[in-house]
Amino acid sequence: MVETTEIETKTETKTEAEAFEPFILGIFCNWCTYTGADQAGTSRMQRPPNLRIMRVMCSGRVEPEMIIEALRRGADGVLVGACHIGDCHYVNGNFKTVRRMPVLVNLIEQYGLNPNRLWLRHISASEGAELTEIVKEYVEILKKLGPNPLKKHK
Amino acid sequence: MSKSDLSSQPTSDSDSSPSSDIRVGVYLCHCGVNIGGVIDMTEMVEFAKTLPDVVIAREYKFYCSDNGQAEIAKDIRNGLVNRVVVAACSPRMHEPTFRRILVEEGLNPFYFAQANIREHATWVNMYDSAGAQRISQDHLRMQVAKVRQLKALEPQIVMVRPSSLIIGAGIAGINTALDLGNQGFKVYLVEKDATIGGHMAQLDKTFPTMDCSSCILTPKMVEVSRNPNITIMAYSEVEKVDGYVGNFQVQIRRKAHYVDQSKCTGCGECALHCPVVVGNEFDLGMSHRSAIYIPFPQAVPGLYTIDMDHCIKCGICATTTVCEPQAINFDEVDEIETVEVGTIVVATGYDTIDVSHLGNYGYGRFENVVTGMEMERNLSSTGPNLGHPVRPSDGQTPHSIAWLQCVGSRDTREGNHPYCSRVCCMYAIKQARQYKEKHPEAECYIFYMDIRAFGKGYEEFYESASHEYGIKFMRGRLAEIQENPDKTLLIRGEDTFLGQPLALNVDMVVLSNGVEARADAGKIASLVTIQRSTDGFFMEAHPKLRPVDSLTDGVYIAGVAQGPKDIPDVVSQAKGAASGAAILMAKGEVEVEPYFSIVQTALCAGCRSCIGQCPFGAITFDSVLHVAHINPAQCKGCGTCVSTCPNNAILQNHFTTKQLMSIIEGVLGDDRVW
Ligand SMILES: Cc1cc2nc3c(=O)[nH]c(=O)nc-3n(C[C@H](O)[C@H](O)[C@H](O)COP(=O)(O)OP(=O)(O)OC[C@H]3O[C@@H](n4cnc5c(N)ncnc54)[C@H](O)[C@@H]3O)c2cc1C
Ligand code: FES
Question: Is residue B202 packed enough to be buried (19+ CB in 10 Å), middle (13-18) or exposed (0-12)?
Fold first, then answer.
């Protein structure tokens, strides 16, 4: 696992980085972020083609295994989308996510992955514009980071 | 044993590895040009055929149409497919439509998955076909992988109580209450103020018909109070909402009136004797009331309340000579009442936009600059000047008045109000006409960006204001207002028609300020778990097709709480919300998605970690079997317990770990070429 750190910190050449299209897996809660992503679509807010979205009912449902599995299988970034604190459809599921994610970020770091490979963001049902900005920013950051090194370890 | 080891144990979740009898049909919808105009559908069909267990892949212009649905139905009927994936719009839009086809063809509706390739692919990558295609293919991979793992489920049926909670008793809440009450449903109408009526009670006349607002509102208020099915809970606030569609438990704080409402006769002697004088909120502080008061004479319920922030506890009102029925009770405390309802309607209305921060207009500094609502009270025959508007600085009749439109609204500079408030153009014209009727010699100016006279009879109303009433409409945005030494006002700006600077002296300026979401809208949204739009108003489930439903089943929204609108639109929407709630209650039962979680007793170690995670108290501990148990009726299906269980012992229907993991494996399969 140590070697992945080295790969991770290795700087890519510019052309490689430019050609690289990061794969982002979005795990979004049904009530806020998934709906916000629908709103971004309905409002035709254009974003880079890097985000795949899977739906869970609440961000509290997001299991550490899912994130680890996605990264292990080569996703370049995982974006967990939750309601804002206080807005969770199930009262406080997102609060649990907020507490769980930093531990996971820590864990993936110990595995040699850059902590930016896992983002948690609070995006409400009307924040399609915020989602769009977040995806743009995430794509930029992941492009700089380069491909997930675990991809090569299949 | 680690958690991942356990997941390979034979559980009801994992014994369903896709087998040869799974036949997936993939239906790729063009959605006109929305999808078909961006990505290559023929290529998508070929791609779909390469996915595991896919036996049929078809494309069609509109799968939601009759013909499209028939094609899917035929394939199921002919035994060709037993799992269905539609790649189209968001499942939030058409999942119910497609599930119904499965039911009609005798297939379990939960053998369906929808790949969102419109909102999440082609609409956000309209100019990048290759990118949109990539995302669409991945979304298809994900849903095909998921559908292979899905299990048959029985829809859950829950009873719906024939009673409704309505929060807010403006014209929206009042109409909803009457419509529901008249249909025989029990209604609890909760209003935070001491009277029902809302903003409409403050209006003098209403555009475009110039009906007297009180004359059309107060009979409705009385009707509400007489309706045996409606319980008015004035001076009350909702504290807590538990439960789910059909069965909400609501805690309501009944604020202390310090006047026993069962004894008060509303005679008003107390107010006459009360020595305290404070500004009356109903007249925006332009008139006075005592500490013991009713908000306005036609208030419903017309019973008195003591404003403890201002009461000096002199006790005069409590003497038998003043209050014969002995209704005064200084020791009264707030009470919490719990009611059980099947449906909820949120009709909490609006706040007017605060204009005191708009420094260039001088509101708060210049006495003769007033807001739209202040002018409304100023014009009202029940207002502080009994319908004879005066200039605040000297009490004289103003000769010239200018209305400034779009103050606060359509403005992103200060406060975030990019939207049109939809009532200010019309209320300014109304007020100017009212003033002209009283003082035909007066000069009335309306400074506007553009006049929005969109409703029935509005354009005619506007036309006659300029042609018959001689109101002067000036197109331009005003830069600032200055006060002259005699307190008249100098308006400066630009006439955008003539392209010339403009300066005008007037006696009085009315800032036609718009409306905004109530300051406590966030609190209400959390209480009933509904969403808010970018503008802060409550969000409807679909802007066109479900304008009065919230995203939460059984909760509806009505009136300006959902967005700016005038009274005709508020009333129509209130009827809509009442009808939505009534449909549920008349049926008496509703189907809810069976996404509840189940403890697999054999795997449960009895650690109880899940119990504290459940916000709904749905998990109990069976101390005999030493396992956790989830009550499906109480479980709302968030799945938080599932991700908490260290033993993988909990399954969430339709979102089992296996099913969710299959999505990830499906899109990030070993065969994926990077
Ligand atoms: C100056 C002005 C003039 C206007 N003139 C006209 C006109 O001539 N014609 C026309 O068609 N429209 C007019 N309008 C628009 C009109 O006022 C609104 O369309 C209408 O009053 C909205 O009714 P509502 O019931 O949605 O909201 P509201 O009237 O705001 O009622 C909401 C009610 O809910 C209560 N409430 C709020 N929060 C809570 C809570 N948490 N718990 C319990 N209760 C709560 C409030 O106290 C209030 O009673 C005018 C608006 C303004 C500002
Ligand atoms: S429902 Fe969105 S985080 Fe819980």
Answer: buried
Architecture of domain B351-516: 3-Layer(bba) Sandwich (3.50)
CB of A55 within 8 Å of any CB in chain B? Answer: yes
Tokens of B430: 């109304």
Using CA atoms, how far apart are residues B629 and B611, in angstroms rounded to an integer? Answer: 9
Q: Is B413 on the interface with A (CB under 8 A)?
A: no
Cβ separation of B657 and A65 shorter than 8 Å? Answer: yes
> What is residue B6's predicted lDDT score, i.e. its pLDDT?
32
Q: What is the pLDDT of residues B282-319, one digit of tens each?
A: 999 999 999 999 999 999 999 999 999 999 999 999 99
Residue B144 dihedral angles phi and psi, to the nearest 5°:
-65, -40
Cα separation, B497 vs B473, in Å, equals: 11
Burial class (CB in 10 A: 0-12, 13-18, 19+), A154: exposed
Task: State the CB neighbour count (10 A cutoff) for residue B417.
Answer: 24
Mention the CATH class of domain B6-155: alpha beta
Per-domain residue ranges of chain B: 6-155, 351-516, 597-652
CB contact under 8 A, B124 and A53: no
CA distance A47 to A31: 21
Is B526 within 8 Å of chain A by CB?
yes
> Token pair 């005191």 is at which residue?
B356
pLDDT at B7 over 60: no
For residue B345, the surrounding DSSP H or E stretch is: strand B343-346
Separation of B661 CA from ligand 1 center, angstroms?
49
pTM: predicted TM-score of the whole model, two decimal places: 0.88
Ligand 2 center to B548 CA (angstroms):
22
Closest in B132, B615, B643 to A63, CB measured: B643
Q: Which CATH number fits domain B597-652: 3.30.70.20, 3.40.920.10, 3.90.1150.10, 3.20.20.150?
A: 3.30.70.20
Confidence (pLDDT) at B543: 86
Question: The sheet that has B335-341: what strands, in order across it?
Answer: B236-244, B247-254, B335-341
